[in-house]
Specification:
235 residues, mainly alpha, globular, 66% helix, transmembrane helix, transmembrane, membrane, 10 helices
Length: 235
């Protein structure tokens, strides 16, 4: 990672911190005073999670013993986040939290995907991820970031777009997210690598880029699932 310019790492570090702030902003704008009161606690919990992931990455837990299965970043970074999401959707307090989040603000949160895609493109130029993972390849996730302000403002705030179309937008966004997650997983050096052998996905095993699969992707995934649940519930 020594060949990467410092501004690129700083850009992604700032992108991650902004994602944290945006998510807490979503919580702070909840319809429920109980949920709003939890914003500081949620900020501290997520900040601790980021520090744990940073410690694991900086201590080379993720970029060594690459033949282990499941990959350590999946075991210690991704699966715990997915487990928490599943738990929130299956316990009453979690459902209460989810149903009171602001659909408007959680839609705006998708703007962060623009900066993620810029980072991935820069990482490709430095041969840290394959072209497949960028908007020059088969990753069209940037479209969600570009369209998010329009959907949030015209679709949700001004009600100029039908809820069915907003639901379709979220389903498409979920599909695009799963697409890049699949590409990233299959192009990373591991026993199940299936593509990009000439230029594998190694950036996400290093700090600060490990925050992408262990924090930003789960936050965006959670946002889409929350939006889809709310939109279906109030059809």
């Amino acid at each position: 990672m020594d060949n990467l310019p410092l501004p690129l790492s700083l850009l992604f570090g700032v992108t991650t911190f902004v994602t944290l702030l945006l998510f807490c902003w979503v919580v702070k704008n909840s319809k429920s005073s109980v949920v709003r009161s939890q914003s500081i606690i949620i900020f501290l919990i997520l900040a601790c999670w980021l520090m744990i992931q940073a410690a694991l990455t900086l201590n080379h837990v993720y970029n060594t013993h690459l033949n282990s299965f499941p990959p350590k970043i999946v075991l210690f970074g991704i699966l715990p986040a997915v487990f928490i999401i599943i738990l929130l959707f299956n316990v009453e307090k979690g459902k209460l939290f989810i149903d009171n989040l602001s659909l408007l603000h959680i839609t705006y949160l998708n703007i962060i995907r623009i900066f993620v895609e810029i980072t991935l493109h820069k990482l490709f130029l430095y041969k840290m991820v394959p072209e497949l993972m960028t908007f020059k390849g088969i990753n069209f996730d940037i479209l969600m970031g570009i369209s998010a302000p329009f959907i949030a403002y015209h679709g949700i705030k001004r009600s100029k777009i039908s809820r069915n179309l907003i639901l379709c937008w979220n389903i498409i966004g979920l599909g695009l997210l799963l697409n890049i997650v699949t590409i990233a997983f299959l192009s990373a050096p591991s026993p199940v690598q299936k593509m990009a052998f000439d230029q594998p996905n190694i950036a996400l095993l290093y700090f600060p880029f490990s925050w992408l699969p262990t924090f930003i992707v789960p936050v965006v995934l959670f946002g889409h699932l929350v939006s889809i649940r709310q939109l279906l519930k109030h059809k």
